[in-house]
Amino acid sequence: MKAPARARRAAPRPRVALKLPSFAKINLGLEVLGRRRDGYHELRTLFQTITLRDDVWLSPRESGITVSSGRADVPDDATNLAARAALELARHAGVRKGVHIEISKRIPVAAGLGGGSSNAAAVLLGLDRLWRLGLGPTGLYEPARRIGADVPFFLLGGTALGVSRGDEVYPLRRQIRAHVVVATPARPVSTAAVFRRLSRRLTPREIGSTIFRFVSRDLEGEACFSLLSNDLESAALEEAPDLARALRRIRSLLVREGAALALLSGSGSSFFGLFTNARQAVRAREALTNAAIPAVHARTVTHEQYRRIWSRALGR
Ligand code: C5P
Which of the listed residues 148, 172, 196 is the one where a domain comes to its end? Predict the structure, then answer.
């Protein structure tokens, strides 16, 4: 009689990946006050998260940090902000674990929509959960700002004032609820190059007043979007002169369809229109698509909605 086969060791169960939302942002207004000693610029900006989003999947591994997105325009090495976030957090918390990060991209790359920074913040929030660190947005703030100036904002989301390098963020009491049409001409723009260009002709200012005026009027119940502008626009158009014509066309189309605000987001190349009326937003997106300009229709995501979506994603 054959000896009974020894019970085989159970194969390791596949570790379940954590699926995370990674929202895009627009800048409803952006003021550059001057150059700082650290080479960055002193900003006043109004950040706003929108429903356009990537999905980020985290799969725990014993060691090693890897990232993939299947896209040629997104690095799959340590220069990817999502991989840097994992590395930065492991160092910060003294963790010796690995992770594989999979990014399913919908947010256009190098388009002023904060996609890379948002992916990085998603990795911080997700790994905080997977590695049971219990840091939360407050404890993640330091590693977030070491990764990039826009990363801390994505720990909070919603409508928020960003000051300093844009990395000091304060959610506003009145959160904006609106439709957003984002048009992205197929032309990536380097944020660093736009800031360099602006620096050459920047006259340092003590204060920026448009965002202050917008916020104080908004608190009185009057949303004066016409006060807002983006100081990076002229430098972005100098950096990418071929964009100027496209942006003129996009702006006139958005305004014609009734946009309350039509602005370049961050350093571009995305241009967005803010609409209080859904039908106008639908028409604006259609008109852009008919003009062969890639465009999406999104909504703003308030701070409360952002918190709720994140709580669900983290299983809280
Ligand atoms: O912080 P982050 O790497 O996302 O910023 C990209 C580049 O944009 C920086 O390297 C810097 O050149 C420029 N920048 C700046 N001032 C800011 C934010 C960004 O000069 N407040």
Answer: 172
Q: pTM for this structure? A: 0.93
Q: In this predicted structure, what is the pLDDT of residue 13? A: 45
Q: Quote the pLDDT of residue 37.
A: 93
Ligand 1 atom 15: residue of nearest CA: 40
Low-confidence residues in the chain, pLDDT < 70: 1-16
Q: Which atom of ligand 1 is nearest to the CA of 166?
A: 21
25 catalytically annotated: yes
Helix (H), strand (E), coil (C) string for the chain: CCCCCCCCCCCCCCCCCEEEEEEEEEEEEEEEEEECCCCCEEEEEEEEEEEEEEEEEEEEECCCEEEECCCCCCCCCCCCHHHHHHHHHHHHHCCCCEEEEEEECCCCCCCCCCHHHHHHHHHHHHHHHHCCCCCHHHHHHHHHHHHCCCCCHHHHCCEEEEEECCCEEEECCCCCCCEEEEECCCCCCCHHHHHHHHHCCCCCCCCCCHHHHHHHHHHCCCCCHHHCCECCHHHHHHHCCHHHHHHHHHHHHHHHCCCCEEEECCCCCCEEEEECCHHHHHHHHHHHHHCCCCEEEEEEECHHHHHHHHHHHCCC
Taking CA atoms only, the protein residue closest to ligand 1 atom 10 is 192
Structural domain count, the chain: 2
Give the per-residue pLDDT at 47.
Answer: 98
Residue 73 lies in a domain: yes
The ligand 1 atom nearest the CA atom of 150: 4
Catalytic-residue membership of 2: no
One domain for residues 142 and 219: no
Give the structural domain span for 214. 179-301
